[in-house]
Amino acid sequence: MKNKKIKKIVLAYSGGLDTSVILPWLREKYDCEVVAFAADLGQAEELSGLKTKALNSGACKCIVSDLRREFVEDYLWPMLKSGAVYENGYLLGTSIARPLIAKEQVRIAHQENADAVAHGATGKGNDQVRFELTFMALDPSLTIIAPWKDPTFELTSREAAVDYAKKRNIPIVQSKKSIYSRDRNLWHISHEGADLEDPANEPQEGIFTISRPISKAPDQAEYVEVGFEKGIPVSLNGKKTASVKLVEQLNKIGGKHAIGQVDLVENRLVGMKSRGVYETPGGTILSTAHRAMEMLCLDRDTLHYKQQLALRYADLVYDGKWFTPLREALDAFFDSTQQCVTGSVRLKLYKGNCILAGMKSPNSLYAVDLASFTMGAEYDSTDATGFIRLLGLPMKVRAIKNRKPAKKSRKK
Fold first, then answer.
1. Mapping DSSP to helix (H, G, I), strand (E, B) and coil, where does residue 218 land?
2. In a domain, 130, yes or no
3. What's the angle, vertex CA 37, arms to CA 35 and CA 40, rounded to 5?
4. What would the mean pLDDT of 192-200 be, rounded to a whole number?
5. Could you confirm whether 127 is annotated as catalytic?
6. pTM over 0.70
């Protein structure tokens, strides 16, 4: 395999510093054509001029695939229905995007008759795993090239990469100054590196990109209402809204109120801890609303068991195991639980807080008569006496068995 002649490579290309220098490096090392591929997942202005830059950097072709709708409906919605959150804070914005990018990369490799795929993920991060597991799952015959893990790859620092780019007249935005490593899509934007590498440092207000700092959020609260059908968000403020537009609008509304800002030291799959600051305004609103809808519509056993499986689902997404039988089986379970999750949730957005302000559903399991403190004919409180006696019987027996005999008093 090491001696195999590579004829054409499809590179996952973002136009950032790493992939900007990796593209010509691949051409020089493998002496072959390199197709630059970028997935439009809602990066907005980051895609501007990407094709021209890729071609000027040596790509034989640059393909930009608009995957926004597929991203929302086939990846974000299933994850939302699962309730997956990694380590109590991360809504998996980067993690959930990588399998889709890699899947499209494999499709383009077939379309372009390429025999290799490449990525710019480092050997320290999670993305290398997510890309390569997807490549292996979808086409194990493709050669996987990961320059950061190649012993001959000399551009192992940002300073070296900047110098390499300048010598070859490759346009880059970054400089040798301390900068953040960012990843953006419709669901979120992440910030890592620079001063954030020290967990003792508070994130500076200037870091926030798609949301305002809390100090600059409006003094007036705003209400939004999200409608669901079988666990899927379908309307905003009573108006049917297409999936991509719904996320975009909630990002704008939530961003204005500093919703969804998370500072997290997380455990990477490869073993070390890393610190990241995440902005997920629309995703936070949707996740909060979805949990409220389930709270109203799911029975106790289903809700509690689903919460357990959500932890496993989060690990699968984080670890890049999207294309696995287990993830598909879990999706089938979650889809079953969502058949009754229909209704609407009203939320109050204020200074970084996403607060429940009412919910309703035709499938609500909340019975006012049963929940009321007023005793009525629909609930016989005497039933609770026997229930509690049986529920507490094991504890009562244990207490009786462990009871120490009373000490006899000594007669003087």
1. coil
2. yes
3. 165
4. 94
5. yes
6. yes
255-259-263-269 Cα dihedral, nearest 10 degrees: -90
181 is catalytic: yes
Q: Which of 95, 181, 274, 344 is catalytic?
A: 181
Give me the mean pLDDT over the 168-192 stretch: 79
Task: Of 352, 344, 130, give the one whose Cα is nearest residue 232.
Answer: 344
Q: State the residue for tokens 């029975």.
A: 299
- Please name which of 180, 121, 142 lies closest in space to residue 320, comparing C-alpha atoms: 121
The pLDDT of residue 63 is above 70? yes
Q: How many CB atoms lie within 10 A of CB 151?
A: 5
Domain that holds residue 217: 188-298+341-360
Distance CA 80, CA 58 (A): 40
Is 211 designated active site? no
In tens, the pLDDT along 389-402 reads 999 999 999 999 99
At residue 95, the 3 state secondary structure works out as helix
Q: Clarify whether residues 200 and 71 are in a common domain.
A: no
CA distance 135 to 138: 5
The answer to whether residue 18 is catalytic is yes
- From 20, 127, 287, 344, the catalytic residue: 127
Domain shared by 89 and 195, yes or no: no
